[in-house]
């Protein structure tokens, strides 16, 4: 069996009964892109770390600038691959630019669910749930799959929750993005706990929580994703073909640009950047490189040439492996199949050694554990006591009455019976609130509720 490009590129919007009328000159996928750009969740990424949290260098990338670069690389990949797809298949009104727009929109939101302080925030949530006495008390009221959602907490799943529910919460389907864009966004179209979980890159993480399980099922069925397990109890699909391009765009952007940022931060010297990046450069480009007047310009030039080379190689590999991708049998990231794979792995291993373990980044990452766990302790204990008070018909403790006012009602509504009686829903509401914060907001709020600093100081 193979997936069908006509279904894969469905303009059907999540939460709507029928596709919108297509407007000439502005495809549904371009509309997805525009909706994302104007969303508060996208804007907040301007103050969320890429590699270097709370950096004092304004050149260093944030999640926002990284996501924009992933989107640009993704558009190039999607449009070029789209030209081949449109030539090979009868796709009716679909144009190569439409396919580029899907990958661009999905790339724009690939990190939109990340908590403050990057991946350390995810790890801190997982650690808290495994070791906190508060969490231990709440586990008794959760199913195994609900527990698995938080024990392996995923920014990818939070991202789908943001797009399909938290942004524009009054709409069925949240932002009501097209199913094509939402499926391309999901690199791991699997729930957190699956019996006989298939091995492979598409199932090493998960992309939706139990609360959005049926919403993702709708996306998968609308776009015709192939199921990977034969079970009504476990949801697990193969990737949407364009998710491979979103992943490749992310791999290209972060490996190359994080290396550039490391030079800006003084972690790597120019000679090492030049030595490694020269693997991407042809002879004619070497002449231009030698004419540039500064190391900064040379690094920027090398970065641009590297991305251009990697985009070209990724396009060729996708076209070569299209049949395996459509049948759901490809099991290696595209970036591992390209001719420059060894150079990309060399960059990644060098970054693991000294870039991602740069002392300041590690210090803030460790502090992020204390910050995230501290916020969870305060707010989870608060909401649990308030829920108990509501059920018992009494007033909550004055402290908790005040603390819960810090949580916007869009994340936490104590009047809802489901919130009062469901430990999983209540904990997810706190996580929604914490994950919505920027790095600066999380640090500021933590200091204030701990009495380290007071408002106005």
Cα-atom radius of gyration = 23 Å
CA-based shape: globular
Q: How many individual β-strands?
A: 0
Give me the CATH architecture of one domain, please: Orthogonal Bundle
What ranges have pLDDT less than 50 throughout 5 or more consecutive residues?
none
Helix content: 55-70%
Please report the number of helical segments.
22
Distance between the termini: 63 Å
Sheet-strand content, in percent, reads under 5%
**CATH superfamily membership of one domain:** putative deoxyguanosinetriphosphate triphosphohydrolase like domain
Please outline the major beta sheet. none
Any idea of the CATH topology of one domain?
putative deoxyguanosinetriphosphate triphosphohydrolase fold
Order of helices and strands: HHHHHHHHHHHHHHHHHHHHHH
CATH class of one domain, please?
Mainly Alpha
Q: Calculate the mean pLDDT score and round it.
A: 92
Structural class: mainly alpha
Structure notes:
- The structure is a single chain.
- By secondary structure, the protein is mainly alpha-helical.
- Among the domains are: 243-355, putative deoxyguanosinetriphosphate triphosphohydrolase fold; 359-449, no CATH class.
- It contains 22 helices and no strands.
- The chain has helices spanning 5-8, 28-37, 40-43, 63-88, 96-108, 119-131, 133-139, 144-151, 155-166, 179-185, 213-223, 241-264, 270-277, 283-291, 295-320, 322-327, 341-355, 359-392, 398-403, 417-421, 423-435, 439-449.
- Helix 2 (28-37) packs parallel to helix 5 (96-108).
- The protein is globular, with a radius of gyration of 23 Å.
- It starts with a helix and ends in an 8-residue tail after the last helix.
């Amino acid at each position: 069996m193979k997936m069908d490009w006509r279904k894969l590129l469905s303009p059907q919007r999540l939460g709507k009964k029928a596709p919108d009328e297509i407007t000439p000159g502005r495809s549904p996928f371009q509309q997805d892109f525009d909706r994302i750009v104007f969303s508060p969740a996208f804007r907040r990424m301007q103050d969320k770390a890429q590699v270097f949290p709370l950096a004092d260098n304004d050149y260093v990338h944030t999640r926002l600038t990284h996501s924009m670069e992933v989107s640009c690389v993704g558009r190039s990949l999607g449009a070029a691959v789209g030209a081949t797809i449109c030539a090979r298949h009868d796709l009716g009104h679909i144009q190569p630019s439409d396919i580029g727009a899907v990958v661009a929109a999905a790339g724009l939101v690939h990190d939109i669910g990340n908590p403050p302080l990057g991946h350390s925030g995810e790890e801190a949530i997982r650690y808290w749930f495994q070791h906190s006495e508060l969490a231990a008390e709440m586990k008794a009221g959760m199913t195994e799959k609900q527990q698995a959602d938080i024990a392996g907490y995923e920014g990818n799943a939070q991202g789908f929750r943001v797009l399909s529910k938290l942004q524009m919460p009054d709409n069925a389907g949240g932002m009501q993005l097209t199913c094509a864009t939402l499926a391309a966004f999901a690199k791991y179209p699997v729930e957190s706990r699956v019996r006989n979980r298939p091995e492979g890159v598409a199932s090493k993480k998960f992309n939706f929580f139990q609360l959005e399980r049926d919403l993702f099922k709708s996306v998968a069925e609308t776009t015709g994703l192939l199921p990977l397990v034969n079970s009504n109890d476990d949801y697990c699909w193969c990737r949407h073909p364009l998710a491979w391009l979103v992943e490749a765009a992310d791999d290209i952007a972060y490996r190359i640009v994080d290396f550039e940022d490391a030079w800006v931060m003084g972690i790597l010297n120019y000679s090492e950047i030049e030595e490694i990046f020269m693997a991407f450069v042809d002879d004619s480009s070497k002449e231009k490189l030698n004419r540039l007047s500064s190391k900064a310009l040379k690094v920027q030039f090398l970065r641009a040439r590297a991305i251009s080379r990697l985009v070209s190689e990724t396009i060729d590999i996708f076209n070569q492996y299209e049949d395996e991708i459509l049948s759901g049998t490809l099991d290696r990231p595209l970036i591992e199949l390209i001719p420059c794979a060894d150079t990309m792995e060399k960059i990644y291993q060098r970054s693991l050694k000294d870039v991602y373990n740069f002392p300041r980044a590690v210090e803030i990452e460790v502090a992020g554990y204390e910050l995230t766990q501290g916020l969870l302790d305060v707010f989870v204990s608060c909401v649990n006591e308030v829920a108990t008070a509501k059920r018992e018909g009494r007033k909550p403790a004055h402290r908790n009455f005040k603390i819960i006012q810090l949580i916007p009602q869009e994340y936490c509504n104590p009047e809802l019976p489901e919130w009062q009686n469901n430990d999983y829903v209540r904990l997810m509401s706190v996580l929604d609130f914490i994950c919505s914060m920027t790095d600066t907001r999380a640090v500021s709020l933590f200091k204030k509720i701990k009495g380290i600093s007071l408002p106005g100081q």
